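> example.struct
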């Protein structure tokens, strides 16, 4: 996978050499979201095992968040991106219950292969309608009157971006997503996958080329005073080299802002996330940190729901109380609403 490093290394080098525009009159505002590729049927278990995985989140997420609140009084927010192909009414009702308890949100995840534009569109529309009408999830876009959703592509293959068209097959996927109500994509970063884009650490709009894959490789950055444009908004997590963690004591390792058993949430990772956090151009006083995880596998539960996670959030609150930054826990939907507010020139209070 090292050969895929070169695709974004130049972008990282330019960003690392660009002076950090850090507000001097007041602490920056940090918006923190966790995007979970939540797959209870990961590894093809029986349904009882999948339900046990969900039950653990029902029990442990409220306990982990107990007594933890940001400047607005909200606990950490967890956005569950649930796979279309694994639809299970009981599981979605339980995730909706966590949403009703103020602990997060539910959006759309999808693994597919050899698909077509028409087939993808029909499946998305049906699934989105089911989430909204049967489970009380998602929101309605006032402009269209239809449900709107956030999206994460399975196997990172957004817009047919893997070699040979693996795990997708749809070159105009960005357009299909937009036409079916997708308000933003949260797939990236995808390194060490070859689906990784040249664009990193960015919030940007991509224009779909229906004849070519990976149209989101580059795009127009979101900026103050510029309305949304293009076919789809993409909100990336941080992707950077970590020189404090070196392989064989020499080569830096990569931090792709993923949380797992091998890379649990830790304050030691925070300086890099803050340094390379995506921003809306012209509003660098607001840093958007989108972390990602695969929350269903048992191996990741301690890092996401145990003492490590709790100490991470408490540490964030301690740093905020010392004036290093202001902290706000948000869902992925709320993160995008903040992006659009900044584009309109509004100040986030």
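> example.seq
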């Amino acid at each position: 996978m090292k050969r895929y490093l070169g695709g974004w290394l130049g972008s990282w080098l330019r960003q690392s050499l660009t002076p950090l525009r850090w507000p001097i009159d007041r602490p920056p505002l940090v918006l923190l979201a966790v995007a979970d590729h939540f797959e209870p049927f990961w590894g093809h278990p029986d349904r009882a095992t999948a339900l046990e995985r969900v039950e653990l989140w029902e029990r442990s997420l409220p306990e982990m968040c107990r007594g933890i609140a940001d400047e607005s009084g909200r606990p950490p927010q967890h956005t569950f991106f649930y796979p279309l192909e694994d639809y299970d009414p009981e599981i979605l009702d339980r995730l909706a219950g966590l949403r009703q308890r103020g602990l997060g949100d539910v959006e759309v995840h999808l693994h597919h292969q050899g698909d077509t534009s028409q087939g993808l569109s029909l499946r998305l529309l049906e699934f989105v309608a089911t989430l909204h009408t049967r489970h009380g999830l998602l929101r309605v876009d006032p402009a269209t009157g239809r449900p709107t959703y956030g999206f994460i592509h399975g196997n990172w293959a957004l817009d047919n971006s893997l070699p040979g068209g693996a795990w997708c097959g749809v070159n105009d996927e960005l357009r299909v997503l937009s036409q079916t109500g997708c308000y933003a994509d949260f797939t990236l970063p995808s390194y060490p996958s070859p689906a990784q884009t040249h664009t990193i650490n960015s919030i940007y709009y991509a224009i779909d080329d229906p004849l070519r894959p990976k149209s989101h490789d580059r795009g127009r950055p979101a900026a103050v005073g510029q309305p949304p444009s293009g076919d789809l908004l993409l909100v990336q997590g941080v992707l950077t080299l970590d020189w404090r963690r070196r392989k064989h004591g020499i080569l830096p390792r990569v931090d792709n802002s993923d949380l797992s058993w091998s890379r649990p949430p830790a304050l030691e990772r925070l300086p890099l996330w803050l340094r390379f956090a995506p921003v809306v151009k012209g509003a660098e006083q607001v840093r958007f940190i989108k972390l990602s995880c695969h929350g269903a596998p048992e191996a990741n539960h301690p890092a996401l729901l145990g003492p490590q996670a709790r100490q991470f959030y408490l540490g964030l609150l301690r740093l905020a109380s010392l004036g290093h930054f202001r902290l706000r826990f948000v869902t992925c939907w709320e993160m995008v609403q903040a992006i659009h507010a900044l584009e309109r020139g509004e100040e986030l209070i």
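> remarks
The two ends are 43 Å apart (CA to CA).
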